[in-house]
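2 proteins. here.
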Amino acid sequence: MRYLKIYLMKLLICSFLIVLSYFKSYSQELNAEVTVNYNLVNQTSNQVFDDFERSVYQFLNSTRFSNESYNSIQKIDCNFIITIINYKDNQFTLNIDVSSFRQGYNSTYKSLNFLFRDIGINMSYQLNEPIIFSSSRHTSDLASLLSFYSKIIIGFDKDSFEINSGIDFYSDAKFIFDNASSLSSNSTWSPTSNGGRVNKYWLVDNLISNNYDVIKRINYNYYRNGIDLMTTNKDVALVNIKKAFDMFLDINRYRPNSILKEIFFISKNDEIFNIFNNDSELVDIDEIKLILNNISPFHSNKWNKL
């Protein structure tokens, strides 16, 4: 009887662990890597920076930013690279580079879907301070910043699989931004930060505006009808990617400086070059170069090497 009780107890514990692992694997949305670089700061102790890195990592990888459940394959790979510019008395000035990746269908290849740099952010953080997520209120600049970009990452990922399916997450990011801008003294929540164009305000403004829906459709077509077909029908994939570029020609006439177009080419210029450089015999490369130079002249030096 005694051995039976021990056996049943072990069975119960194993069952509990299996159920726990199931819910853990079907949980939140992000698979985030976090790097905190504090080489620019002259500090005798790095304890607060190491603790800061651990707290950010735990927040991003344990917080659920929606009611949806993601398994380990569905989780979105992303990077948060935080550079500490200045630190004194628990006050940080930092830059943050946020990127996320989207895996191609039936492939191990991961494409850079979102890339954004946010600079000159001022905030406070002290050792062992909890980062508290709230969907309804501003708890701290750090919590709002991380939640804002997490929502954007999830929205970008969803939009690459289904047109306009990320809009609810962009709306959530706008809500986070509005709360932070009204309650925080941090100037980076202002529409005029970073020169008044490439900042959080204009990022989320473009994402929720119907005026820029075409760029979200371009990103969708680039992935679903391009990248996702590269392993099964490369000829068709290349044609469809070229068609996605053609759509930029129209928006260039009335929205030439969209932040979303800038993100598209900053994140994908290397990938685009490699795609057409490796398979130049399958397309009219001169036409591709002409289109790319027209819609993304900043990267002309690269396009002209095709």
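next one coming up
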Amino acid sequence: MIAANNVTLRVGKKALFEDVNIKFTEGNCYGMIGANGAGKSTFLKILSGQLEPTNGDVTITPGQRLSFLEQDHFKYDSYPVLDTVIMGNARLYEIMKEKEAIYAKEDFTDPNALNIITVIKVCLECV
């Protein structure tokens, strides 16, 4: 679960949002809508820890994680969709690329297979 508790963000004297309380529970899909400049991206930055709120706090259940992609319309154009989604979890993406590099070796041998098993074990620990 991810929860925002009494989250407020002020820019000068103006509150972009104030006393936001919300819980994102497992198994549900959520969408955030609002006018341009309403604070949607800023709120997501607070949830991900990229930005500190003026007041309040965000809690993530131990063992859970939040993955995100930067809001850049062109940054991911050269990547397949699956790669782009996995990039939201940088460590998982690195492990996937390691695995692909091992599989791509022309002289694939039993030690390479052991490397893949190690990569998969690390992967399972990080997700």
